[in-house]
Automatic annotation (TrEMBL):
Enzyme class: oxidoreductase
Family: Belongs to the BluB family.
SUPFAM superfamilies: FMN-dependent nitroreductase-like
Keyword set includes NADP: yes
Pfam families: Nitroreductase
Organism encoding this protein: Thauera chlorobenzoica
The protein's name in its UniProt record: 5,6-dimethylbenzimidazole synthase
Length: 264
């Protein structure tokens, strides 16, 4: 609890802030048309993790600016905006990142049980050198000081916020016809070293970005028989973890297949 004098000063400062900030206005066109709604769902359902279909075609700056801006408009805990974006085009930097991937990839293979190693070896899991643009999305956990609205009790919220930026970018990129592939098979420090990232900054995502020859209609890991898509109905819980579906739950479950373009 602050002493009364300090409390008053803080309240006055906050009052000044709220009084001096422009009045909040409301969105004038809040509804999406049916076509706009369909376009959003199309981006969601046709987004893919792209590893091997990159074309060398350059990505125009105005397109890259749009997808970066989409990332920057992601939600973030306490409006912390903990992200930075490292745009990587230099071949020598990509080479260093690629070496870091190769090392971790060789280690990763040995972590799977023997029966799966041959399949793992065949998977293409990055497009670092082929993609014209690589992008590292980071998280600065110290941004705006130690106490952040919404992160007071669960520290990882800042990391989740940077992931929200990644997802915004991924969907915007799909709408632009750009493929994005997330590569996470690295020692974190090796990625920091390759990109000159300071110790206190967390590299959250390393993304390969570029135009593509085609998008697959299903996740590559699903098509390769690595894992199937789980049934959403088996992942829904009602009121509590062990909760069974009541009438309302059953009605919702009956609607799920129609909502999924791959099943409906
Ligand atoms: C946090 C995280 C990390 C990774 C991935 C994703 C996410 C969310 N994915 C992509 C992942 O394999 C892919 O999203 C799923 O297989 C589903 O496929 P679609 O994204 O729907 O095409 C991924 N893919 C890959 O080839 N190499 C990788 O290192 C990673 N790492």
């Amino acid at each position: 609890m602050q002493p009364p004098g300090r409390r008053l000063a803080t309240a006055r400062r906050q009052g000044e802030y709220f009084m001096s900030s422009p009045a909040q206005s409301i969105q004038t066109n809040p509804q999406f048309s049916a076509e706009e709604r369909a376009a959003v769902y199309r981006a969601i359902h046709t987004r893919r993790d792209v590893r091997g279909q990159f074309l060398p075609d350059p990505v125009p700056d105005e397109v890259l600016a749009r997808v970066l801006t989409a990332a920057h408009h992601a939600p973030s805990v306490g409006f912390m905006q903990p992200w930075d974006f490292i745009v990587v085009r230099a071949p020598e930097v990509k080479q260093k990142v690629n070496q870091a991937f190769r090392l971790a990839h060789a280690e990763a293979e040995l972590m799977f049980e023997e029966g799966k190693r041959a399949t793992y070896r065949k998977l293409k899991l990055e497009g670092i050198l082929e993609a014209p643009i690589n992008l590292c999305v980071t998280c600065d956990r110290r941004r705006n000081g130690p106490v952040v609205v919404g992160r007071t009790h669960i520290a990882a919220m800042d990391l989740y916020s940077s992931v929200c930026a990644v997802q915004n970018l991924w969907l915007a990129a799909r709408a632009e016809g750009l493929g994005v592939g997330w590569v996470s098979i690295f020692h974190q420090q090796a990625l920091r070293d390759a990109l000159g990232i300071p110790r206190e900054i967390i590299p959250v995502a390393y993304l390969c970005i570029g135009y593509v020859s085609h998008f697959y209609d299903r996740p590559e890991l699903e098509a390769a028989g690595w894992l199937p898509r789980l049934a959403l109905g088996e992942l829904l819980h009602f009121d509590r973890w062990q909760g069974e579906a009541d009438a309302a739950g059953t009605a919702l479950l009956a609607r799920l297949d129609d909502a999924d373009p791959a099943r409906g």
